[in-house]
Each structure stands twice: as structure tokens, then as C-alpha cells.
Write a structure and sequence with these properties.
binds lysine; globular; alpha/beta; single chain; about 425 residues; binds pyridoxal-5'-phosphate; about 25% strand; Lyase, Ornithine Decarboxylase, Chain A, domain 1; nine-stranded mixed beta sheet; 12 helices
Amino acid sequence: MSQSAFNITDQKLTELAEKYGTPLFVYDVDHIRRNARSFVETFKQYDINYQVAYASKAFSSIAMLQVAKQEQMSLDVVSEGELHTAIQANYPMEKVHVHGNNKSRTVLEMAVDYQVGCIVIDNFYEIALLEEILEEKQQTINALIRITPGIEAHTHEYILTGQEDSKFGFDLISGQAEQALTHLMEHHSIHLQGVHSHIGSQIFETTGFEMTTEKVFRALSEWYERYQFEAEVVNLGGGFGIQYTKDDEPLPLSEYVHALVKSVKKAAEEYQLTIPEIWIEPGRSIVGEAAVTIYEIGAIKDIPNVRKYVSVNGGMTDNIRPALYGAEYEATILNKRDQALEETVAIAGQSCETGDMLIWDLTLPKVESGDLLAVYSTGAYGYAMASHYNRFPKAAVVFVENGKDQLVIQRESVQDLTRFDLTYE
Ligand SMILES: Cc1ncc(COP(=O)(O)O)c(C=O)c1O
Ligand SMILES: N[C@@H](CCCC[NH3+])C(=O)O
């Protein structure tokens, strides 16, 4: 499991828990950099133009974006808040790609004012709104159209995005993608650079990506024949799987890049099209295995012959993935790593929800209140999806690199929670 790839010792994690309190997200920055470099260095082996855009929805913070920028990545944002974070991190705006299936006028205006690298257009409503804004501002902008290729990747239903029946993008099958293309080709304030397709998340095979490339190029070839449209860019999204538990067997990140480049080259040759720039937008595979969450164990409820519930001082408010997707995690007790495994317990969150369980069956040494539990592979969609349910303040986030630790997101206090509340007169 990812514990082996995680390079911060239990002793260091224990010290960090004492220094910063719990629950605490601890990121191994070196791990983030290695993942980013796996993608970038593999692309460099080919004679093609590429962009690796970090999908900041997986974990966005100013410090994280500083690291992404240092690693030469572009950036995918999906909201005003993610774009604002990019601005605060001084991200080069020409490397920012703006996504979203319901972009607000504000986010589109920001994107135009800051002249972001491109807007990934999702629907007809957005085209009309964007054209109105560009007309008002007498501006132009680069764009990709997001197409849904009609691919069902092997992953959880809620994180599938490439199938025809999806809220995202213009689908190929009904002809809506082609309709968007012909409209955009006639309206010159939007410079159409190419197409985008993202089929889902936590995918362990390259087949889905290869099939997508084939479908995208088949459409591009038709569009070339009918309208002489040539894509400068083909963005094949993110979705590369990581290891949460021993049952997950992810491919090396370089494998995805090899497969994508080869399939693009093959399809371009087959349809006699120029090889476009290849863009990808990984999120989970950059940060997922780079972090652990440390909790303190509190209440223990043993129901003889039924189950032993071990509660931690966090749960669905810092990691909603088990409750939302039935996601599975592995964990250890930091202060008991050398002790024999003795009992199988269930790790419960502290929110007032029966479904707030982090791990149903975890074998640990004898558990006691006060022990520190480290849950692995929590770097993606953990803090990013945190909530204030039951008015629990959000956890703190620490980055560790070269043996040095630094707080990058402060722990919230209960005072923070009532900061926007007004009394009712
Ligand atoms: C459009 C788009 N791009 C990129 C990503 C990042 O996916 P992942 O974190 O699985 O790499 C997502 C999330 O699924 C997405 O919806
Ligand atoms: N948040 C999801 C994945 C969705 C990614 C964004 N489209 C997860 O935790 O697995």
C-alpha cells in the first residue's frame, strides 16, 4: 500500500501531531514533486508538445499551487474560488484552464479579464454567456470544447464522466458536439484550440483512454473533412488511479503517458491528421498518495460478538469518500507500529450520521483511547471536500520537505465557524 511510498517516519508524524494537533493532514512534498515529474519527464521523451495541468479540485491551497507552479505544471480550476486561489498563488494565468458545467458570469469575466490560457466550454448556455461577455469587453479568449465520447470507464458510477448520459460536456452521439463546433467556428471572439475529454476518475487501465482517443480522432477526422477544422490541442483529462489499499494495483504514472501519446500518434496517422498538443489534467495521482491524515482515538465501544467501534476526532467532515463512494482506506496506529496485530475494529467518524465510518474492518494492535491513527492516501479529495457538518472546524495541513515541516493551512477554530453568523433582531 501507499505506506511504503510515503516517506515520513511514524516518529516524525507523531511529533507533527503533537506540534500541530489533530486531525492533521501531512503532505510529503517530495512525493508530490515525484508524481508531477513522472508525467512531465515521460512526455519529454517524445517529440510532441504537451501540458500537464494539475487538477486543483483534488487539493487546492496557495502552497500547493506554488509547488505545482515550481513543477512547471499548468492548472485546472473549476470555480471562482479555485481561480482566486491561483491568482493568490501568482500562477501564470496563461497556464490556467477554466472548467465547470455551470460557470458563473463572475468566473467567466474573471477568466476573460485575466486572459487565462483557455476556457473548457461545457454547454450552449455557457457559449452564449461567454460571447456576451467578450462582446461587452471587446476581448477574445482561447477555448476547448468538452466532449463526452460515450465511454464508460471502469470506476464508481458517481465519478464516471465520459458516458453519453452525463451532465458534463457536449456529447458526440447526439451531434451536440458538432453543433457547438460549427457555432464556434463562425464566432471569432472565441478561438477554438481543440477538444477536451475526461472519462472519469480512479481508472486503473489504459484501455478507456485509448478508446477515447480513437473516438475523439474519429470525430476530428469528420470535422476536418466537413469543416477543415484542425485541433491544435487534444486534452484527454485526468483520472489515473492510485493505491488506497493493497487491493489497488495502479500502473506507474509513466504508463498512462506512454499509452496516451502512442494512441494519439496512431490515431493521427490513421486519420491523416497533424499530431496536436497533448494535454492531461491529473489531480488524484499527483497528491492522493502524498498525504496521511492523523487522528486521535477517543471513544471505544465494544459490542460483544458484533463489532468494536473506535471513534476518531474527525471523519466525514475531513474525508467524505467512504460515506459517498464506499471508498476504502488503510491505517495504522503510529505509536504501536512495532506491536502485534490483535483485534479487528471499525473506525468511526464523530459526526451524527450512522454512515460516518472511515474504515469498517481494520486489524490493529490493541487499541486504546489517546492512540494516534494515521490513515493513508488521503491527499486527494479529502481536505478539498471537507465540510463544517455538525460545526466541526476544518483540520490543519502541514507540508514536509527535506525534513522540515511547515503549516500551510491553519486549523480552524470554533470562532471561525460563527464568523459569518449574524444575530436575528
Ligand atoms: C474534467 C476533469 N479533469 C480532471 C479531473 C481530475 O481527475 P483525477 O483527480 O482523477 O485525476 C477531474 C475529476 O474527475 C475532472 O472532472
Ligand atoms: N471527488 C471524487 C472524484 C471526482 C473528481 C472530479 N471530477 C473522489 O474523491 O474520488
